[in-house]
Amino acid sequence: MAGRLPRGASSSAGGYPPHVAAYGTIIYSGASGALRGRAAFAAFAAAKAGLRMVSQSFAREFGPHGIHVAHVIIDGSIEGDKIFSKIPDIKQQKGPDGLLDPNVIADSYWYLHTQHRSAWSQELDMRPYAETF
User: Fold this and answer.
1) Whole-angstrom Cα distance, residue 121 to residue 71?
2) What's domain 25-126's architecture?
3) Is the pLDDT of residue 71 over 90?
4) Sign of the dihedral through C-alpha 15, 18, 19, 20
5) pTM for this structure?
């Protein structure tokens, strides 16, 4: 999060005194499970849907005080050591650009952070071009 919440601020209604000017960005990372559940993933879907609702509530609460709150849906596997250790041949399975590039994810997060407040995005979906959804 860029910036910080003022001392004494809370996440309940009325947590900011009217004279406090704040700034910054809070970005929550979610998954497609926030939008639709799958068999055997009920707990995951409930948690991700809850996170999405928290981000929407915080956007409505903190946005008027200058804090941009966004939710990013990461729909696919992220290229890196973690996925390669679990599925060593996933890059070959998915094909060219079939995994999310962490540098491109970072660029998207930076884009959200630097958006002009006259046109803030609250939610952004990211997925490889070949990902079914």
Assistant:
1) 9
2) 3-Layer(aba) Sandwich (3.40)
3) yes
4) positive
5) 0.82
